Structures are given as structure tokens and as C-alpha cells.
């Protein structure tokens, strides 16, 4: 090589005065990546494990592009030679890989999407070969959040990550990713967006992840509708593991409303069955199908979900728990085969909670013996159950032991919402409102970003031309409605 590798790798200095302009930074970063792409694989192993090792010279947080190339080639060479000690968890290369994924400069890695993806893809198989796949969760999650703090642009890594979390039952570990809204899919970004202004380059401070994570960036493999559906189904299962039923139901609704060409697949069927049960837990009974769902596909999944709909119907009869128990017992084999036994039990438990909650509307206090007689159980079992409800925050009440033997233990409800175990201080209410405001503002920003990117698409521009040709230049407001009598093209068909 005309230039020694260490000197070449240090040529791109992101903090240089010459690169203060975002346009100059963009040009230099792209040129630097092209240079590194031309370096042969043999050069990257030169001086390995010596004081002149480039992995020792480079700072992963400052020289992120160069470090990504060097580390990727080094790990690849070690795996080819089966030098497993260095790449196994605890080995030198493993430690360098984890450090890099936790500290890399996210702006630089916008330009090195292929290296980013390859390094992230190394983590799980290395951890799995060591017999501890769960060790891959934290590094992968760190890389996803570091590249895109919103993790709102859907990538193939999203699917791989949630699969790993479900396999290792690490439901809480998946929550930081699942809680973020998916606002973009990898798409083709028009070349015009990348040229011209200081704010249209990849390195721009205002760049959204949907602009630098696209089909040609290398940050993701190709994603399909099935990938997206699988992500939401598995995400819902993770939320079920955390007993966050409302979030799980919301995820399953994403699956039900996706375009389906009048044909339902297995993921939609699984989503519908769970969604029906979750409607009981979240809404207190059967919920209407979202109007945007494909009617033909929904008809198909409903035809295979009669047992679940029967449970949901029986659930609405709160004062007749025997009917729900009968439906659940009759479909025991179905719940087991579908992997929904635990969710069905939660539905039965929920009806019990609903029954007790309804008592608070009529009574200020009621003997536990009376409750046990109505739900079919002993007084001691019912007392233990009520204690659990109170401790877990499902019931704003207390249990009292009376002096009368015929009365026994009494369940007494708190009529004042500012009293009892569920009472909240004014400060706690303010904190809850503040958190909700932050979530709403974040979602509004993503919607505005999606609207802006929509105006850059070929379909939008062609529609605008048709509108201008038909109606002439706009007056007070531009009519950008897409209902122009022309059959719409399925813009997602290539996914």
C-alpha cells in the first residue's frame, strides 16, 4: 500500500477544523469509507496483538469508522482460523466488540452501515457458541439505541433482537426497544435529499433515522411484512410476560390492520386469538375489530377462533363465573396447543377481579364468606386471594377480622380515592402527567418527520402534479388529497 494502514486509518478526524461544515464532513466520510473498502483483508491482521496493533492505536469512540472496519476484519479472521478464545465472551476481541457497540460515534456509523450490521450480527452467534445467548442482549440493544435513539426505523435487527429476548425469557430487557414507536421502514431515499443544503446530508444534526437507515445504507437486511408481523407478535408476547396487557393488545392490533391482500396468515391468526383474550383483560369484554383491518382476512381468522370468542362472550357475564369456567375447561386442549393456557387463566382471574371490583359499587364492606359462596371457593382461599389483590395494587380495600364468628373476615373498601393502598399524592399525579406529555411530544415529532418524508416520495410528487394539472395553481391552501380517482399502487409491495 502507498500509505501505511495506521496512518490511513487516522486520516479521518471528525473533530478537525476542516470538517466543521456538515457538507465537508459528509464528503470526507464517504471518501474515507471508499478508501477502507479498497484495503485487502490481509492488511488488517498486520501487527495484530502487538503495540502497533491498530485496535490499540484507534479510539472506538473517536475513530469509529476506522475501528469498525478493523474490528470486523479481525473478528472475521479469528473465526476463520477458529481462534475461539479471543472471540468468546471474556476474550480480547469480544471485549473490544462490546466496548465498540457501547461507545461508537453514531454519526460516523451512519456512513458505515455494512460494518455496523456485520459487527452486530457477530454478537449473538459468539454468545450462543459459548452457551450463553443472553450475553448478546445488552450489546445488541446498546448498538441499536446508539445508532438510533428512537429505534423507530424498523430493521432486521429488531426481529433478531426480540427473538433472542423471547428465547431467553428476558422480557424486561426488550422493553426499552418495544416501548419506542416504529415510525419508518427502510426505504429508498431520493438522491436530491442528499445534495444541496447543510441540513440534507447524513451527518446533519437534524437528520432522522429514517433518512440514514434505508435499503442501500447497509444497516439492515431486507425486511418483509412477515418480519414486521413477527416483531409485533413476539413483542406482544414479551409484554404478556411483563403482564402489560394494554401494550400487548396494541401490538397485536398492528398485526390485524396490516395490508393482507384478503388472505390471513398464521401470524394474523395467532394475533387475533391473543387479541380476543386481551380484550377481556384490557376492555372488560369483546372489542370491535379496528375498521382499517381487512374484512375478508378477519373473517378467515374468526372462523378459526370460535372457542376464543366464546370465552370472551362468557367473560361479559361477571355474575355468572360458572359459565366462564365451563368454557375454559371445555377448550383446555385448544389453549394448550396454542400456547395460550396462561393467558386464559389470566382471563379467569380477571373476571374474579371484576366481580370483586363491582362489589365496591354496592357495598362499603362485605363478609369474605359471602364472596366465597358466590365465586365457588372456601373462605380461606378467597381471603388469601383478596390479600394478593390488595398487595399487588388491584384493589383499594383492606381485610378486617371481626369478633363475630359467623361473620369472620370482612372486606372493607376505601370510599375516598385519596386513602388506601392505591391513593396517589398530588406529586405522583403530576409526574404521571409529565411522563405522558413527554411520550406525546416524542410521537408528534415522529409524525411530523413522517409527513416531511412523505412529501419527498415519488408517489406524492406525481399526485401533486396531477392535482395541479387538474385544478391549476393552489389558492389559499394546497389540495394534497390522494383521492383522485386513480387506483393507488401498493407502495409496500416490494418489502
Automatic annotation (TrEMBL):
Stretches assigned to the COP9 signalosome complex subunit 3 N-terminal helical repeats domain: 44-293
Alphabetic keyword roster: Cytoplasm
Regions that span the bilayer: none
GO biological process: ubiquitin-dependent protein catabolic process
InterPro entries, alphabetized: COP9_N, CSN3
GO cellular component: COP9 signalosome
Protein name per Swiss-Prot or TrEMBL: COP9 signalosome complex subunit 3 N-terminal helical repeats domain-containing protein
Amino acid at each position: 500500500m502507498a500509505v501505511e494502514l495506521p496512518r490511513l486509518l487516522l486520516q479521518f478526524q471528525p473533530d478537525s477544523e476542516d470538517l466543521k461544515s456538515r457538507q465537508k464532513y459528509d464528503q470526507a466520510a464517504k471518501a474515507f469509507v471508499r478508501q477502507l473498502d479498497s484495503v485487502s483483508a490481509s492488511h488488517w491482521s498486520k501487527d495484530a496483538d502487538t503495540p502497533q496493533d491498530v485496535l490499540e492505536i484507534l479510539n472506538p469512540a473517536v475513530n469509529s469508522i476506522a475501528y469498525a472496519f478493523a474490528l470486523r476484519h479481525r473478528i472475521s479472521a479469528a473465526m476463520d482460523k477458529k481462534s475461539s478464545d479471543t472471540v468468546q465472551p471474556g476474550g480480547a476481541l469480544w471485549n473490544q466488540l462490546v466496548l465498540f457497540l457501547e461507545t461508537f460515534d453514531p454519526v460516523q456509523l451512519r456512513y458505515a452501515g455494512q460494518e455496523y450490521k456485520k459487527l452486530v450480527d457477530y454478537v449473538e452467534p459468539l454468545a450462543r457458541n459459548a452457551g450463553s445467548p443472553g450475553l448478546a442482549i445488552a450489546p445488541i440493544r446498546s448498538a441499536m439505541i446508539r445508532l438510533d435513539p428512537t429505534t423507530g426505523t424498523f430493521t432486521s435487527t429488531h426481529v433478531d433482537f426480540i427473538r433472542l429476548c423471547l428465547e431467553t425469557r428476558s422480557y424486561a430487557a426488550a422493553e426499552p426497544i418495544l416501548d419506542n414507536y416504529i415510525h419508518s421502514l427502510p426505504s429508498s431515499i431520493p438522491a436530491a435529499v442528499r445534495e444541496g443544503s447543510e441540513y440534507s446530508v447524513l451527518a446533519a444534526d437534524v437528520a432522522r433515522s429514517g433518512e440514514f437507515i434505508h435499503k442501500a445504507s447497509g444497516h439492515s437486511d431486507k425486511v418483509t411484512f412477515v418480519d414486521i408481523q413477527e416483531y409485533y407478535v413476539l413483542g406482544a408476547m414479551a409484554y404478556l410476560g411483563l403482564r402489560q396487557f394494554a401494550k400487548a393488545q396494541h401490538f397485536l392490533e398492528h398485526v390485524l390492520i396490516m395490508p393482507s391482500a384478503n388472505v390471513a396468515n398464521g401470524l394474523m391468526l395467532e394475533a387475533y386469538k391473543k387479541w380476543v383474550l386481551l380484550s377481556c383483560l384490557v376492555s372488560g369484554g369483546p372489542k370491535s375489530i379496528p375498521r382499517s383491518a381487512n374484512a375478508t382476512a378477519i373473517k378467515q381468522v374468526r372462523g378459526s377462533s370460535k372457542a376464543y370468542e366464546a370465552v370472551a362472550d362468557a367473560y361479559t357475564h361477571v355474575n355468572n363465573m360458572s359459565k366462564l369456567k365451563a368454557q375454559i375447561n371445555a377448550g383446555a386442549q385448544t389453549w394448550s396447543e396454542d400456547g395460550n393456557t396462561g393467558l386464559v387463566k389470566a382471563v379467569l382471574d380477571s373476571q374474579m377481579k371484576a366481580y370483586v371490583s363491582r362489589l365496591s359499587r354496592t357495598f362499603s364492606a362485605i363478609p369474605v364468606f359471602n364472596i366465597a359462596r358466590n365465586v365457588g371457593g372456601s373462605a380461606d382461599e378467597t381471603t388469601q386471594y383478596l390479600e394478593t389483590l390488595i398487595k399487588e395494587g388491584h384493589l383499594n380495600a383492606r381485610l378486617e377480622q371481626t369478633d363475630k364468628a359467623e361473620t369472620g373476615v370482612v372486606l372493607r373498601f376505601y370510599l375516598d380515592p385519596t386513602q388506601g393502598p392505591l391513593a396517589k399524592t398530588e406529586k405522583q399525579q403530576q409526574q404521571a402527567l409529565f411522563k405522558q406529555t413527554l411520550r406525546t411530544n416524542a410521537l408528534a415529532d415522529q409524525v411530523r418527520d413522517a409527513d416531511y418524508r412523505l412529501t419527498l416520495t415519488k408517489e406524492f410528487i406525481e399526485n401533486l402534479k396531477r392535482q395541479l394539472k387538474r385544478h391549476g395553481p393552489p389558492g389559499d391552501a394546497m389540495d394534497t388529497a390522494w383521492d383522485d380517482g386513480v387506483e393507488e399502487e401498493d407502495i409496500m409491495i416490494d418489502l
